Amino acid sequence: MVSATNVDATAVNTIGWLSAADRTIVVPVYQRQYRWDIGGCEQLLADIRAVADLDDRHMHFIGSILSSSSREGRDAELVLIDGQQRTTTLMLLVAALHHTVRDADPQLARDLQRVLVHADDATRTKLRPHRAWASVYERVVLDLPLPPGEQRDSRFDDNYAFFRSQISLEEAPHIWRGLQKLEHVAITLGSGANAQQIFESLNSTGEPLRDHELIHNYVLMGLSHGEQRRIEAEYWQAIEQNTGDAIAEFWRQYLTMRTGREATVVGGRGVYDAFRSEFPRLDFSRLVAYAEEWRALSHVYRILRDPDEAPDDEIGRHLRYVNTFGTDMYPLLMRAYRDFELARIGRDELIDTLEMVQSLVVRRSVVGTGVERLVARLCRAREEGPAALVAAISRITPSDERVAVALKYSELPHAAYILGRIAGVDGLAGLDVEHIFPLAPGDSWTGDGVREWASYSDDEQNSHRALAKTIGNLTVLEEDLAVRAFDRSFPEKKSLYARSAVSTTADLAQIDSWGTAAIAERSAGLTERFVQVFQRPGGPAIDDDGLTPILDAVRRRGWPPGWQREWSYVEYCGEHWEVPDVKYLFNRVFKRLWADARDAVERYSARRGGPVYTAESWNGQWDRLDDQHSLYMGWDSSYMLSAVQGVLEEAGLAAEVFVKYSYIGNAM
């Protein structure tokens, strides 16, 4: 066998690799800034705990770390080319573990210290980040105090604080056992190796796995070959056949249905992470039960996408209506249709749900508010019962008055669907949307047979154009008649309208002339029919479409210079709070609940390992709750938002808290 001359690759124990050599691991200046967030740290800690529970044969592979050697002797350096993020995070975890045990377990503290610092100088960290943030990292790892009055936010502080909050003194040996079972491939380059080419080979070769492919691998990995074949043959192939090229969307919408929360996609990932969080353990017996549900719901998904496969014609008709607006409401409809299949609800209740969804979506389309990120709250409401679902839909369905104004002055969306349903001919094929007053009239066009378009004043022409796409100027007409009516004057069109089988179109033949007054009158009549066909469920209108439930709030991207306000305001149980961003809200919610629902805060904090503590055990930003308890304020914003959502759920108040994004918050 011929050995490589410029690359040395060896499988090593990660902690042993970090502990053994008395050299400095250097992050070169061209590397990106440290970017791991608490979500990544949470997953790493979960993996370490899981492998710690297993016997000595089981190890956890963390990938490869690519480096090159530089210098010799006391100044020996290992320059990281790939692996900075993982190495830095492991060092922060070891530092948190070290500071937890240093007074109680000196031997373990010495073992941990060997990973962090040089044997001959405890002030020299083995990892040396980019000099721009090296002092921040060293302050955290060496547990150095901040200068008086200084507060500093960094990912180093956030992630270290998370690890400190999660690891108790009693659990420390268990975490150390898991750490010692980490392995990686250490790739060290010689002077003749092309570092960039090797880096690109490790990171850029091949197509990255998509969410649904990662889910597939996760489900099957760890099963015996026979178990894999059974899951694949009996369940997974059926799921793929039922969902086709929409399999990724199926999993996203299934998880929204199941959890009542929408997966946040970051860097192409999100659905897979949500799946792993929802199904952290998949032993074979439980996997089979879940797979039965997945297969059944994938068949429902197939029917939603192709309503012709629905066994009930009326239900299929309403599913086709819903598909006019896309697939946003599928998570809610998947559950409702599956409950219908299982006889948990009747046919009439399913159709009522489909009608409510249509009314919600079409009314919001008419007033221009859209339906993005609404379905999760409706899924949560449905789990509480039919009345809760009606109340939730009612709350976000625009009122008759608001719809009437929009119909009178705004372009009609989904015109064929709306006009067809109003006229009762929505199932009739071969209909076109007809503009009674043409979009581009010729000079000789006339609405009354007397005055021609060229003689209209500018104001008159502009008034007609402004109403050309509104409901009052639109109708549906058979294709052959529509071709003959195109661009003709109104007196010529009347005879064609009279021949139409569509009642709302035939009625136009009785009108003497066509202009803005006739459009307004017809708009009023069609609006009356619209609000009858697309009825708003529930009680008095609230029209809170500008408010987002706290459970559906998401972190926006970074702010442009000069803009610091994420939210216009927050509604907290009927109160109006002026809080600009999640950090202020985090502080205010925990302080308020500490006074009003302390038991809920204590339960949540005990289960999650924070953010309330009896001692300020590490450097950082703290706020006192009382003489014995402090609230740690140094988390990253995503963790803070998650904590706000979690503690409000624990207290049973999440449904009563809403955020109103600022203009720039929505734009971001």
How is this structure best described in words?
By secondary structure, the protein is of the alpha+beta class. It has 29 helices and 17 strands. It has a 6-stranded mixed beta sheet with strand order 1-8-3-4-2-7, with helices on both faces. Strands 11-17-12-13 form a 4-stranded antiparallel beta sheet. Strands 14-16-15 form a 3-stranded antiparallel beta sheet.
Write the layout of secondary structure elements.
Layout: E1 7-13, H1 14-20, E2 24-26, H2 38-52, E3 60-70, E4 77-82, H3 84-101, H4 106-116, E5 117-118, E6 121-125, E7 127-128, H5 131-141, H6 155-166, H7 172-179, E8 182-189, H8 195-204, H9 211-220, H10 225-243, H11 247-259, H12 271-278, H13 284-305, H14 313-323, H15 330-341, H16 347-367, H17 375-384, H18 386-395, H19 400-409, H20 415-423, E9 431-435, H21 458-467, E10 474-478, H22 479-485, H23 490-498, H24 503-506, H25 516-533, E11 548-549, E12 567-572, E13 575-577, H26 582-596, H27 598-608, E14 612-613, E15 622-624, E16 630-632, H28 637-650, E17 657-661, H29 663-667
Parallel strand pairs: 2-4, 2-7, 3-8
Antiparallel strand pairs: 1-8, 3-4, 5-6, 9-10, 11-17, 12-13, 12-17, 14-16, 15-16
Helix pairs in contact: 1-4, 2-6, 2-7, 3-4, 3-6, 9-12, 10-13, 11-12, 11-15, 11-17, 13-15, 14-16, 15-16, 15-17, 17-18, 19-25, 22-23, 26-27, 26-28, 27-28
